[in-house]
Design a protein that fits this description.
alpha+beta, Aminopeptidase, 6 strands, binds coenzyme A
Amino acid sequence: MHINRVCLPENYTSLFFMNLYQRFPETFIVAEENGKIAGYIMCRIETGISNFKLLGIAKKGHVISIAVLPEHHREGIGSALMQEAMKAMVNYKAKECYLEVRTSNLSAVNLYRKIGFEVARTAKGYYADGEAAKVMAKKLPFAK
Ligand SMILES: CC(C)(COP(=O)(O)OP(=O)(O)OC[C@H]1O[C@@H](n2cnc3c(N)ncnc32)[C@H](O)[C@@H]1OP(=O)(O)O)[C@@H](O)C(=O)NCCC(=O)NCCS
């Protein structure tokens, strides 16, 4: 919760964090460096219309929040958190992964593109301050 508050304007109650942790523990992951938490990712597994038309209705892993402390940026932690969460999504039978990202958040957009995400659509006025979100999605390569 501390890292979330330091890094992002979208903050949540402890109940919200605990709910995601209890329902989807395998995709709630922290990165540690020398025994201290440097970053986290938390996700939800949903059933709905696929971001990839041919799949129809699909189970999807939705990245709700990911952040890494500024002093640990560019060490590969964000990529590692994404890769581990995507592997775990397959355990919940998800076929694809998606997320929303501010159109201005170039570091995050670059990270997602680098690991194979594509922009599925733009959601106008998605954030509380009116900024649009890019909805980015990727088929899960390890899907059974
Ligand atoms: C986005 C974020 C999680 C990336 O974490 P990270 O641990 O620094 O990412 P990585 O070290 O794994 O970087 C992977 C790739 O992302 C891209 N990237 C990361 N930071 C970048 C930056 N400042 N500028 C441009 N590209 C960047 C690069 O392609 C990078 O690969 P490279 O280092 O080989 O060039 C981190 O910047 C962060 O916590 N930001 C604040 C919170 C946030 O925006 N969360 C996402 C909300 S959708």
